[in-house]
Write a structure and sequence with these properties.
By secondary structure, the protein is an alpha/beta fold. The protein contains 12 helices and 15 strands. It folds into 2 domains: 34-93 and 179-223, DNA polymerase, domain 1; 97-178 and 231-437, Alpha-Beta Barrel (TIM Barrel), CATH 3.20.20.70. The protein has a 9-stranded mixed β-sheet, sandwiched between helices. The protein has a two-stranded antiparallel ribbon with strand order 1-2. A two-stranded parallel ribbon has the order 3-4. Bound molecules: S-adenosyl-L-homocysteine (SAH) and iron/sulfur cluster.
């Protein structure tokens, strides 16, 4: 693969292809999407700005990119007029390409997206009465081959870059029209500009553009602002294609931009990362990202989990639950979600429900359980449990004092359930492979 490096990741037998920091573009410009402020600043310096200018401009551009969703340098009104084309010649602030956008009758929306180098992946938006959840992908494909998961049947094409991950959230905000509008944002003090100044003589007047809100209450302030705006996109789940903990650095870097009060400003309490159980990376996830954790448990015996989630052969149930018990930041107020896909005659008996309760109690886990009706796909080896079976399972767990709601399938008419984001992408990527095979 031309645009990836190989990097060993703990817990992974084979090296995982890791996308490079910056994907080179054919036009030679550098895509700023996904880069933190410090990196943007370095790039500006390397392009010829003096350090003070680079710092100021990085701060301004960062604000426009991540807080306001602006992609056109011409619209960045606090940059000197002559600097805007200078920026546009060297940099770009892209978005993933939209191949297809679908809208379900229940309000669920699904996008088929394409990377700059032609790989397809998906993102889903699920609106509810009190929240709107965006299901974000972390990889194109997945290495882990869970038996009931459609993505698992697809080979890993590559990790998504931080830009491609944060780009999904930004694209959703574009589509939902949810960038903070100018009226609710504090305007920077106007800067004096010399009309004739060229790239070497940019003024250094607006030393603090006035965007910053200091202190720890960024999240709260921004959230209130957004709620007052009637925002639809309130929550993010890393439950699209891929295993986010096998693309740890990129997922972390992207989520930091999402959580930054000067960036997309979404509270970490509203972000959930779902893992199939990459035990060695869980502690770092809590410490370096700090989002809510969801664990795809799906079975309570070694035999069944080995079959459903082959990673279990490497990190068994006990090791996984011990890592959950040690997850930094979890508490009764911030519970760990255990996802449990309901598969007929496989993992859905009353005895399994009792064992699930025993395990949660034994490891003293602040837990809630999400029962997911299996979403069938062509040639899947499993069927969804009957509704009565699911109810009985749920009742047993609830009776033990552990919340165990049954997740309602959403967007069935557009095949949009999270974790099954592949159907269209697979077809496209096959077409893509065919094109590659004939050298196009
Ligand atoms: N790789 C991560 C996150 C992506 S999968 C993980 O496995 O946790 C997101 C969730 O969807 C997981 O709980 C996964 O087990 C579930 N899932 C996958 N395929 C499914 C299907 N066909 N029906 C219902 N849930 C599914
Ligand atoms: Fe990968 Fe998650 Fe699907 Fe398993 S369930 S194959 S880890 S995406």
């Amino acid at each position: 693969m031309a645009d990836t490096n190989l990097m060993p990741i703990p817990g992974q037998v084979d090296p995982v292809p890791v996308a490079r920091d910056i994907t080179p573009r054919l036009d030679g410009r550098v895509d700023l999407l996904g880069l933190p402020k410090a990196r943007i600043r370095t790039l500006f310096e390397e392009a010829g700005l003096d350090p003070k200018q680079a710092k100021l401009r990085a701060k301004q551009v960062y604000h426009w990119l991540y807080h306001r969703g602006v992609t056109d340098f011409e619209a960045m009104t606090d940059l000197a007029k002559t600097m805007r084309p200078w920026m546009a010649e060297r940099f770009v602030a892209g978005r993933p390409h939209v191949v297809e956008a679908q809208h379900s009758t229940d309000g669920t929306r699904k996008w088929l997206l394409r990377t700059e180098d032609g790989h397809d992946f998906e993102m889903v938006f699920i609106p509810d009465a009190d929240r709107g959840t965006l299901c974000v992908s972390s990889q194109v494909g997945c290495t882990l081959n869970c038996r009931f998961c459609h993505t698992g049947t697809m080979r890993l094409v590559r990790n998504l870059t931080p830009g491609e991950i944060v780009g999904q959230v930004m694209l959703a905000r574009d589509a939902l029209g949810e960038w903070p509008n100018a009226a609710t944002i504090q305007k920077p003090p106007s800067s004096r500009r010399k009309p004739e100044s060229g790239p070497d003589t940019f003024e250094q007047t607006d030393s603090d553009p006035g965007f910053r809100q200091d202190g720890d209450n960024h999240d709260e302030a921004r959230e209130t602002e957004y709620r007052a705006d009637g925002r639809l996109l309130t929550n993010i789940v890393m439950m699209g294609m891929g295993e986010p903990l096998y693309n740890f650095d990129n997922v972390r870097d992207a989520l930091r931009l999402v959580m930054d009060g000067e960036g997309l400003a979404l509270s970490k309490r509203r972000i959930t990362l779902s893992t199939s159980g990459v035990v060695p990376m869980m502690e770092r996830c809590g410490e370096e990202i700090g989002v809510n954790l969801a664990v795809s448990l799906h079975a309570v015996t070694k035999e069944i989990r080995d079959e459903l989630v082959p990673l279990n052969r490497k990190y068994g149930i006990e090791e996984l639950l011990a890592a959950c018990a040690a997850y930094p930041g979890s508490s009764n107020a911030r519970r760990i979600t255990f996802e449990y896909v309901m598969l007929k005659d496989t993992n859905d008996s009353d005895e399994h429900a009792h064992e699930l309760v025993r395990l949660i109690k034994r490891f003293r886990l602040p837990a809630k359980v999400n029962l997911i009706p299996f979403n069938p796909w062509p040639d899947a080896a499993y069927e969804c449990s009957d509704p009565e079976r699911i109810k009985s399972f749920s009742d047993i767990v609830f009776a033990a004092g552990i919340s165990a709601p049954v997740r309602t399938p959403r967007g069935r008419d557009i095949d949009a359930a999270c974790g099954q984001l592949k159907t269209a992408a697979e077809k496209k990527s096959r077409a893509q492979l065919d094109r590659e095979a004939i050298g196009k």
